[in-house]
Design a protein that fits this description.
Layout (H helix, E strand, L loop, with lengths): L8 H20 L4 E3 L4 H10 L7 E5 L6 H14 L4 E3 L3 H11 L8 H20 L4 E3 L16 E4 L4 E4 L7 H10 L71
Parallel strand pairs: 1-2, 1-4, 2-3, 4-6
Antiparallel strand pairs: 5-6
Length: about 250
């Protein structure tokens, strides 16, 4: 399915280039998965992959602490595109053990405890979701955070052992919203209530005018620590891109 954007040629080219990029990724890595937090960038990517005859798989991490509006987006995606979002859950025993040992809101006490919570509720389910796949796709953008200013469009993910693509890396917020509105892409309702970045409910707040887009994520921490472990390379000073030969990738790996 193709669409004509009733907007500028520049934005139309952006959209066309994104579709071409996703086609290239799917051709080389047919088992690539799109990770969705149901934020606006992921909504745009879901809309893009839905244009393909055989859409790529989409999954979401349900930490057990998401906003009700986030969970409702799973049905929105199903109704609009016919895409079944695979919802990954943390290990209940690991969650209970952490809460018993440290308390229900221990993540407010230290970065270490917050990252331990993220590790249980997000990183471990992500690892399960990606097991056996050759690549994954995210909606990260360089403009989002000081931890993402050097984000490449393609990188080898040492943490999970597969190729990682960030096709919106150099997009601006205005470009994302321009395409979303032009194509009437359904998006998370909390964006209209001051939430540019949306995660777990107790760890996310609305931002004030002029604040950094991710100021509402883990707002009690320093700006340079605000990643959860899903994108560990954003916080580590090391080579960001590692080429991988296409013929070394099996479509059924």
């Amino acid at each position: 399915m193709s669409e004509n954007l009733p907007i500028s040629d520049a934005l139309s080219r952006r959209w066309s280039d994104l579709l071409d990029r996703l086609d290239d990724i799917a051709t080389t890595y047919p088992d690539a998965l799109l990770a969705s937090s149901m934020g606006v960038e992921d909504s745009l990517l879901i809309h893009a992959v839905a244009q393909r005859a055989c859409p790529l798989g989409v999954f979401m991490l349900d930490t057990g602490r998401l906003h009700a509006e986030t969970l409702a987006m799973v049905d929105v995606v199903r109704q609009r595109y016919g895409i079944e979002v695979r919802v990954m859950h943390p290990d209940p025993a690991a969650v209970q053990a952490h809460v018993t040992a440290h308390g229900e809101f221990a993540f407010y006490e230290s970065v270490a405890l917050r990252k331990e919570c993220c590790g249980i509720r997000k990183v471990e389910p992500l690892r399960r979701a990606l097991t056996g796949h050759a690549a994954w796709i995210t909606g990260q953008r360089r403009e989002q955070s000081v931890t993402r200013t050097e984000l490449p469009e393609s990188q080898w993910d040492d943490t999970f052992g597969l190729q990682k693509f960030n096709p919106l890396a150099d997009w601006s917020s205005a470009e994302v919203w321009g395409v979303v509105r032009a194509l009437s892409v359904p998006y998370h309702p909390l964006h209209d209530r001051g939430y540019p970045s949306i995660g777990c409910e107790p760890c996310t707040r609305a931002v004030r005018p002029g604040e950094d887009p991710r100021a509402g994520r883990w707002w009690w921490e320093q700006r340079d620590s605000r990643e959860c472990g899903l994108h560990a390379a954003n916080l580590i000073d090391r080579p960001r891109v590692r080429p991988r030969a296409a013929d070394a990738v099996s479509s059924d790996s």
